Amino acid sequence: MTTPTGPAGADSVPFPVNPVEEALAAAVEQSVPPPSADVDGDDDDEAGMESVSAFIGTLKEGSLWVPLPEGAGTQDDGSVALPTLDVDGSPFVPVFTSQEQLSVRSSDLPFTVVRTRELVDALPRGVGLAVNPGNPVSVPIYPETVLALASE
């Protein structure tokens, strides 16, 4: 998970604005130890894992905002082309947890809002999700974790 400094104005974007963002904020808070943290933080590790699991569970039931740059969307053959980013040599679909987060970097692009389960059910194996890429609170969902988001 990353919490880099965002572009000018990113700090003025409301966060969190929905349950997915609340769970993401909690996971980031629990996963990033304070500078004075005890090296043997077993309790912190457990709390961090619980908050990450809670985020994944909330994300699974939530919706995502997917930018649709030129060429993306429904194709002539009925398939859906999605934008991708390269993260560690694997394709990741950029997604955002709210319209506010989408507007930080992609306000000029059309977008669609889709239930997370529907999106991951449509993804081919080996594709991850880049959640709020480049924003102050962003996280990669690696392909093996995407499988946990799929419908059961």
Separation of the first and last Cα atoms: 26 Å
**Order of adjacent strands in the largest pleated sheet:** 4-5-7-8
CATH architecture annotation: 3-Layer(aba) Sandwich
Q: Percentage of helical residues?
A: 25-40%
Morphology: globular
In angstroms, what is the radius of gyration?
A: 16 Å
**CATH structural class:** Alpha Beta
* Poorly predicted spans: 1-8
Largest sheet: 4 strands, mixed
Order of helices and strands, N to C?
HHEEEEEHEHEEH
Secondary structure class reads alpha+beta
**Based on DSSP secondary structure assignment, what is the total number of beta strands?**
8
InterPro entries: SseB_N
Protein name: Type III secretion system (T3SS) SseB-like protein
Organism: Actinorugispora endophytica
Kindly summarize this structure in a few lines.
This is Type III secretion system (T3SS) SseB-like protein. The protein is α+β, with helices and mostly antiparallel strands and 152 residues long.
